[in-house]
Every structure is written in C-alpha cells, then in structure tokens.
Design goal:
CATH architecture of the largest domain: 3-Layer(aba) Sandwich
Oligomer: single chain
Helix content: 40-55%
Number of strands: 7
Number of domains: 4
Low-confidence stretches: 1-6, 237-241
CATH superfamily of the largest domain: P-loop containing nucleotide triphosphate hydrolases
CATH class of the largest domain: Alpha Beta
Mean pLDDT: 89
Largest sheet: 5 strands, parallel
C-alpha cells in the first residue's frame, strides 16, 4: 500500500524533515563523505552518542535517520517532560524486543541535560549491556551537564548553527516543493532578512515562513517583499539563551574585548547581551570584576567608575541607566591594563593553601592586656608614622624565617609605573638599613 502524503496540519518543520541523509542540509563537517557521522551511518552498527548543538540544527533529525538506517526501534524520551517512569518503560520495551530476537533499539533522549544525575545513571547498565543504543541531544556543554560515566560511553558530535547558504537552501526547497501554497515567491532582500532572523536555526526559519504564509493568505499576497516582511515580522528578535553556552561565550567575548583595549568591540558585545535579554545588574557585576581583574591599580578610578555605573543603573533602571554601563564599558576598554593585582591575589591564595600556619611575630601582635605586654606581645614594634618619611626602613612584616614571596609585581603601565617606582625606592631604603 502506498504511503499517504504528510498531513498539511503538521508543522512545516515536521513536513520538511529530511527522510534520508541526502536531504540533510548543513552539518557537512560530520555528514560529508569519510567524516565521522557518515562513517557511523555506513558502518551498519549504531553506537551511543551525544549530539550537542544549538536549537534547530538537526539533532532530532539525525537521531531519527540513524534509527531508520539501522532498522531499529526508535524510542523518544523528552527530558523536559519525562522522568524515571519513561526510562523504565523504554527498558521494558527494549527487553521485550530483544527477547523476541527482533530489531535493535535506539533510545533518543531530547534535552538530556535536563535529567538529573540519578536519572542519567539509570541508562548506564543498559548501555553497558547493549540492551539499547543511547542517543542524547543537548544544547548545553556535555562536559558540564552530562555525567562523566555516561559521557565516557558515548561519542560527542558537535553540531554547528546552519550557515546562511544552508538556510537559503531551505527557503528554496520550501518554494520549490510548494510547501506553503500561499507563497509563490520571496524577494532576495526578504530572504536575506529571514535568514538573519533565523540566526542559524532551521526550525525558527520554517516556523517564521509558516506564520508568513498565514498572513499572506489572509491578505491575498503571493509574493513576499522586504517591505511587507518588515511590516509583518516587526523588530527582529534574536535568539538568546540566558543560561546556556551562548550566554557565557558572549560575556567571554565582552571581557576579552575590554582586556584587549578595543572599545568598539566591547560596546558591540555589551549591546549584543543587552539586546538578547541579559540582566543589566549582572552586566554591572561583571564590569566591576573586570575593573579589578584587568585594570587593577594601573587605574584605580576604573573600579570607582564601575561602582558608580552600577549605582546609576539602580537609580534609573532601563533604558536610561544602561548608558552609564556603556560609559563604563568604554572607560574600561581604554584604561591602562594590569593583571598584577589579580595574579598577586591568586598567588597568595595558592601559597596560603600549601603553606603551614606560621605564627605571627611577637612584634606584630596586638597587646590589649597587661599579661600580653608582659609576654612581649608587640615588643619592639616600630610605629611607621614616627619614622622618617613615614617608613620603618628594614622592618620585617612576614613570619620569622619566611622569604618575601613577591606576589605583587606592578606592570609598566598607568599608575603602576609610579607604584613600581615607589616600591623600588622603599626596597632601596630597606637594603641600606639591613
């Protein structure tokens, strides 16, 4: 019996889902001839794997195609909606099929990072025994979100956002197959705008096209122009996962642009984050951190400016207060850079962890009681303000027997040039005294 055509009530993304590898658009770094996933398909032997990539790049499609290629039973579990009960049911079904000597089973877990440790652990014995092949899909970094035991039993394949050329091929396919009868033509400028709006996400592109088709049908429009698209689509909304990998990649780009003294790039990434929905208070906290980590004492005003920008935002809110944060971004980018304080902090922290608990020298101890004074607490302490130039030359402030570690090493930039000169002057006085 011939298969009936897909229901037009299905979402466009589902109707156009590739039926074989030849129809897959994108991910050729994995699916091209002689490349990892292509070899997996051609081997005839499925293996457990994790498909890691942003939304709408083909993770579910590839998992389904693997099931079809290996003639395997395909069980889907949504980690967003499912739980241990679904895992048990999948195990029961796979056990029955295995006992009947039938086809192998593939268990596909969508958004696997949503499962907690115990839920992920439930798959381990069955993956180990070969009862089923495990395929997980995730938008989050598996290194952080997937148990190491499960991760060690699966190959991780990294899927990329679809390129503009790939997304344009999808639009062309929609038009060629008349998948949306209401739309016969889309102007090149409108295609460019749709592709930019999709931001590498094929599902988003197809869902948008479907929405446009509804609007076109109601307005009796068959050709989509850029002007009409703008009217229907409105302001471009960018995909932005505020808790995921893309979020931390973008804040990393902002931090590195500030550190690299590029105010334009820093402003670009800062606005990208605000436009994507990042919380301005979070941005303010990160700017305060940058002022200490990457500028430090080369320009102490940077920290004060960052604190002021955060206070201005608290008073004004959005959008007025965002300008003060942008001012801070530019100032941090153009300020002289020094990580001397940051390095000194980390070196001192590491030293304290591995070093023993050295006693405080007697002359540095406080002596609030008569007994303590009798025990020589604070004896021979030199009060710096009473010394020449307010400096007790030759005095030692470390525990006895400890060599000065030299944690803080000023750089030759900004105020730290003068700080270095001052420290060298004091060292010379110490040397003369000793």
């Amino acid at each position: 019996m011939a298969k009936s055509p897909p229901s037009t009530h299905q979402p466009l993304a589902e109707r156009l889902r590739p039926k074989n590898l030849g129809e897959v658009i994108g991910q050729q770094h994995l699916l091209g001839e002689g490349l990892p996933l292509r070899i997996a398909f051609e081997s005839g032997e499925p293996h457990s794997c994790i498909l890691w990539g942003p939304p709408g790049v083909g993770k579910t499609t590839i998992a389904r195609l693997m099931a079809g290629s290996f003639d395997a039973h395909f069980i889907t579990i949504s980690a967003v909606l499912g739980g241990v009960k679904d895992i048990r049911e999948a195990v029961e079904q796979a056990t029955i099929w295995q006992a009947q000597g039938g086809r192998r089973t593939i268990v596909f877990v969508d958004e696997v990072h949503r499962f907690n440790k115990s839920q992920q652990d439930a798959f381990l014995p069955h993956v180990e025994s070969g009862l089923f092949t495990f395929i997980g899909a995730t938008t989050e970094n598996p290194s952080f979100e997937v148990n190491s035991a499960l991760l060690s039993r699966a190959v991780v394949y990294v899927l990329q956002p679809l390129a503009e050329t790939d997304l344009k091929k999808i639009v062309a396919r929609v038009l060629l197959e008349r998948a949306l009868p209401a739309i016969e033509k889309i102007a090149d400028e409108a295609v460019d705008r749709l592709v930019a709006y999709a931001d590498g996400d094929a599902r988003r592109l197809l869902n948008t096209l479907e929405s446009l088709s509804v609007a076109a049908k109601s307005e009796k429009i068959t050709a989509v122009t850029d002007a009409w698209l703008l009217k229907v689509l409105g302001e471009r909304l960018r995909r932005y996962d505020k808790g995921g990998e893309q979020f931390y990649d973008t804040i990393s780009a902002l931090h590195k642009s500030v550190r690299g003294s590029d105010p334009d790039a820093a402003l670009y990434w800062f606005m990208r984050m605000l436009d994507g929905g990042a919380e301005p208070r979070y941005m303010a906290r990160r700017l305060i951190r940058m002022a200490s980590e990457d500028i430090g004492l080369a320009d102490p005003r940077a920290l004060r400016l960052a604190l002021d920008a955060a206070e201005v935002y608290e008073r004004l809110g959005s959008p007025e207060g965002e300008l003060a944060l942008a001012q801070c971004v530019v100032y941090l980018a153009v300020a002289p850079k020094s990580n001397a304080l940051y390095k000194a902090f980390n070196e001192a922290k590491a030293f304290i962890k591995q070093d023993g608990t050295r006693p405080v020298p007697m002359h540095l101890r406080n002596a609030p009681t008569k007994l303590m004074k009798q025990l020589d607490y604070g004896k021979n302490y030199r009060y710096a303000h009473d010394e020449e130039d307010g400096f007790a030359a030759g005095e030692n402030y470390f525990p006895e027997g400890m060599v000065a570690p030299g944690f803080y090493r000023p750089v030759n930039r900004g105020l730290e040039i003068r700080i270095a000169d001052k420290l060298n002057e004091l060292k010379a006085k110490n040397h003369q005294k000793n």
